[in-house]
Design a protein that fits this description.
mainly alpha, three-stranded antiparallel beta sheet, about 10% strand, elongated
Amino acid sequence: MSEVRVVSVKIPEEVYSEMVLRVPEGDRSNFIREAIIEKLQKTPRADKLLELEKRMSKVENELGEVRKYLADLELLTYQHGRINPHTFCIDETDHQIMDYLLHYKGATTPELAEYTKTNRWLVLGRLRKIQRNSKKQFGKPVIDYYAGEKSGKKKAWWINEELIQE
């Protein structure tokens, strides 16, 4: 056995009473030590969890790449399962932004900020997040930014109508 350390433990009175009844006085330290070792063997190591998280992230990224390539090759069809754009919304602000875009087909960041009663930087961050997440999941973004003029608006965000449910 390697070097030992002293540990102080507070346990409930009823647990202590049960231990006094079941474990002889000279064996209690060994009993507690063995119980801790047994529990640690059942608990996964943090580095293993970190490794599994990394592997899951890698698999998700690779699946996103495959979907992207399939979408580029037009093998992945959106007709039978068009995208519900609200699936990329995480809270009420995102839902308000998406409702506005669905109703008007497009909007500038200041228009969306005024509608949601927030600042335009928050709206811009939300739009980019929706765009990034939809592109990662489906290979094509559900909303796009177009700096030129379209339908009387300049520098606006537009809903990708070919991908959304009707």
